[in-house]
Amino acid sequence: MLELPEVEVLRKDLEKEVVGKRVKDVIVETPSVVRPHHRTRPEFVAALEERKIEGARRRGRTIFLDLDEDLTWIIQPSGTASLHRETANEDPGDNTHLVVTFTIGGAIHVSDPSDEPGLSTGVVPTEEAMAAADLPEGSFDPLEDNLTWMDFGRMLADASAPLRLLIVDPRHIVGFGDVYADEVLYEAGLRYDRMSDTLSTQEVRRLYRAMHEVIAAAMKFRGSSLDEQEGDDAYDDDGEVSEHLKVYGRNGLPSHRSRKPIEKVRFKGVETYFDPQSQV
After folding, report:
1. Is the dihedral angle over the CA atoms 214, 245, 14, 131 positive or is it negative?
2. Segment holding 272, helix H or strand E
3. What distance lies between CA 70 and its chain's CA centroid?
4. Which overall architecture, per CATH, does domain 149-274 show?
5. Residue 209 has pLDDT above 80, yes or no
6. What counts of helices (H) and strands (E) characterise the chain?
7. I need a labelling partner for 76 at 20 to 30 A (CA). Which of 58, 60, 250, 255 fits?
8. How do residues 140-181 score in pLDDT, each as one tens digit?
9. 184: helix, coil or strand?
10. Which residues lie below 8 Å from residue 42, measured CB to CB, with a gap of 6+?
11. Is the Cβ–Cβ distance between 57 and 63 less than 8 Å?
């Protein structure tokens, strides 16, 4: 799953590689990916073809590519969906659901090995883009919002929810999935089932700092090229857990902090990794 660090890397690369280009062709292999923004595939194609990309923004895991004529192309990858920059002649492959090529070369491919692609995309008036993306108002984006740790603490207290659930709940925090939720809690030394309204001032500050540190580290390890983003989950090409992850997917391996084995539990239907020795 693409999470906030990977999506921010994608946004920066799109800003560098795609902004300023004009769309030549749009091929939609799977019509369902364009709903609910357009009723039909031809509507989406007509709205995007010949448009010039003028800017790249992000909110949570949603990418907004601003176009000329006050339009915005919304790309919302979820599940196992991924986005890649390719050459114009690159074979899309069986799992590619959307191909957008540009007049001066290059293309964007959106792929997903799932039978039901986790992608929603469309072109809407720029002033309607945030509403069309259906992003909750008042949620916290750690890379975009200048929220103080004190305000963050008040949000945690008001939510009164298990930390693991709160971190991945877009009504409170946008951009996190299972991988970095576990990583943040490990870095902060807090258990997955700890209630958010029981944290001390010191623990609130640790969690606030951990969110920013984990995101920064993940962006560094992911690199800065879309060509390197093909492994968009927590595993490399050989199925091994990415080396920079400290807890996710490391069941039974020694914790970097306590040297005790990492444990995996199923919490509210989701596999969760933690260090029982150092997370309280």
Report:
1. negative
2. strand 270-274
3. 25
4. Orthogonal Bundle (1.10)
5. yes
6. 7, 10
7. 250
8. 999 999 899 999 999 999 999 999 999 999 999 999 999 999
9. helix
10. none
11. yes
| Domain spans of the chain, in order of start | 4-132, 149-274
Q: What is the value of pTM for the model shown?
A: 0.87
| Whole-number pLDDT of residue 36 | 63
- Whether the CB-CB separation of 63 and 14 falls below 8 Å is answered with yes
Q: What average pLDDT does the structure give for the chain? A: 88
The CATH class given to the 4-132 domain equals alpha beta
Res 227 pLDDT > 50: no
Instruction: Tell me, yes or no, if the two domains 4-132 and 149-274 fold the same way.
Output: no
In angstroms, rounded to a whole number, what is the distance separating the alpha carbons of residues 122 and 45?
9
First to last CA, the chain: 27
The pLDDT tens digits for 97-108 are 899 999 988 899
In the chain, which ranges are continuous DSSP H helix?
A: 4-17, 41-48, 129-132, 149-159, 163-167, 178-188, 201-222
